[in-house]
Design brief:
globular, alpha/beta, 23% strand, 2 domains, six-stranded parallel β-sheet, Rossmann fold, binds ribose-5-phosphate
């Protein structure tokens, strides 16, 4: 099993992140940001940007693989936001860490416990595709509710209507404008925003608003038994164009590899890829680059080699709006 040990050196509350330029109004607000072990840097960046005090977490993995977490600061009488992504590796362990932190916060007297989960594991099993399946993401939400979470924020969940089935108020934010801004800063204003399937067209449209170029999509069908996909490009002319393929998730990379090959065959000049959640399982990154993608840009919902865009401004804006 790929269990990793994630540790934070014990820190007294005095050493916790303090607002550098917080206004009186910000200091008066009592929301505290709990640094989930999987998103410590992101949570600290959110604290720094909002001025909300950070509560460190001490964590370890026991020799038998079980998770341990402990809040290293007071949350008595406070609203709290636990920032904890649940991407691989150990997404199940990270979900449990989140649940344990919610329980710890409740027991320590927190008033409202919000979960900020940049990447929500199991979000793609949002319906019973085949007879005999469950709806994993709904099970996760009920588990989190039982643990003490009463508000939920995620980023670019695979299917937004899923959130309507959650047992607490839940919303999804979009990181696509931040990713598109990254490409604009690199000089690719006017690039074609391309969705690898029709379902992600809303993502391409959000990017188009920032890139200020054209928008288009490929078509993709997936065999539910084998997982194999078939992609086609009908009525799309990309010859000589700079194209940015945009998707919510890159998992095995098959979708992006297929799209990049089509675009290169059709004479695209430059091909880039922007995704919110770059899981990049196995050799996905290499296969995507080998297929002709010049750069892969993801966010810190999945910390790693392509997490070049931080979600801190997006999450900070959302938490500040909750006042
Ligand atoms: C599916 O509809 C998603 O939006 C992604 O396109 C998909 O999860 C990517 O998976 P993979 O990288 O394995 O092709």
């Amino acid at each position: 099993m790929q269990f990793e040990t994630e540790k934070v050196a014990p820190q007294s509350e005095d050493k916790a992140l303090k607002p550098k330029h917080a206004s009186k109004r910000e200091e008066a607000y009592t929301l505290k940001v709990i640094s989930g072990p999987a998103s410590r840097e992101l949570a600290e960046a959110v604290s720094a940007q909002t001025g909300f005090q950070n509560v460190p977490v001490v964590s370890k993995i026991f020799p038998d693989g079980e998770s341990y977490v402990r809040l290293d600061g007071s949350v008595q009488g406070e609203d709290v936001a636990i920032v904890q992504t649940t991407c691989p590796p150990m997404q199940d362990g990270r979900l449990f860490q989140l649940a344990f932190l919610a329980d710890s916060a409740r027991r320590a007297g927190a008033k409202k416990v919000a979960a900020v989960v940049p990447y929500l594991a199991y979000a793609r099993q949002d319906k019973t595709f085949l007879t005999g399946e469950g709806i994993s993401v709904e099970t996760i939400a009920r588990m989190l509710k039982a643990a003490g979470i009463d508000q939920f924020v995620t980023v670019n969940i695979h299917s937004e209507p899923t959130l309507g089935q959650f047992p607490f108020p839940a919303k999804t934010l979009s990181a696509i404008p931040l990713i598109a801004e990254y490409f604009v800063k690199k000089g690719f204003k006017g690039a074609l925003a391309l969705s690898p399937d029709k379902g992600a067209m809303y993502i391409a449209k959000q990017a188009q608003e920032v890139l200020d170029g054209d928008v288009g999509h490929l078509s993709k069908t997936r065999d539910r038994y084998t997982g194999q996909t078939v992609q086609t490009a009908e009525g799309l002319n990309v010859k000589g164009q700079t194209v940015i393929i945009l998707d919510d998730i890159i998992s095995t990379g098959g979708t992006i590899v297929g799209a990049a090959k089509i675009l290169r065959e059709q004479g695209a000049k430059h091909v880039f890829c922007g995704c919110v959640h770059g899981l990049l399982i196995g050799d996905a990154e290499k296969r995507i680059l080998d297929a002709g993608v010049e750069e892969i840009v993801g966010t810190d919902s999945v910390p790693g080699s392509v997490s070049k865009v931080s979600l801190a401004p997006l999450i900070s804006q959302e938490l500040k709006a909750q006042k």
